[in-house]
Structure formats: structure tokens, C-alpha cells
Amino acid sequence: METGPKNMADLDWAQCPIVESIPGKVSGAWVLRGTRTPVKVLFENLQAGLSIDEVIEQFPVNREQIESLMAFVARSLDKPPRYG
Questions:
Q1: Count of the separate structural domains present in the chain
Q2: pTM attached to this predicted model
Q3: 18: closest CA among 76, 58, 57, 82?
Q4: 38 DSSP 8-state letter
Q5: Cβ(31)–Cβ(19) under 8 Å?
Q6: Can you list the alpha helix ranges (DSSP code H) found in 1-84?
Q7: Which residues of the chain are modeled with pLDDT < 70?
Q8: Would 83 be classed as within a structural domain?
């Protein structure tokens, strides 16, 4: 039995308290709340091999924000999928 979203795009980011999407701000992309740092860019850099410390050096984010983001993703991946 399949559980959780198939990929990051399937996550319900509106349920993540650490992110926001505001029309006109970074083209409406999901960003860390209070920043202009897109969630997608953070994950792309982590996937490319940067460590969390390197991401913190490259972007205006802190460890707590990254850990909160990762915790949301982990919780979301444990949930059964919802179908239309």
C-alpha cells in the first residue's frame, strides 16, 4: 500500500507554518516565512550535495528554519495520500 505524497510537489505546503506564498513576492513561490528564499531552491541545493551548514552560509536562513522545514516534510511523507 502506497503512503504519503509521491514527491515534494505533491506536499500541501499551505499546511506548513514555516512557509508562505504571496502573489507578487518571488512570483508566488513557496518561500520561508518572512524571507524571499524559495523552498525549492533550498531543496535543490541540498539535493546537489550542500550540507545544511553550507545552505545556511549561502542563504539568509537559519538551522531552526531548515529543521522545521525538514520535520514538516517528514511528517507529510508519513500520511496516506488523498485522492481528488
A1: 1
A2: 0.78
A3: 76
A4: B
A5: yes
A6: 39-47, 52-58, 63-77
A7: 1-9, 79-84
A8: no
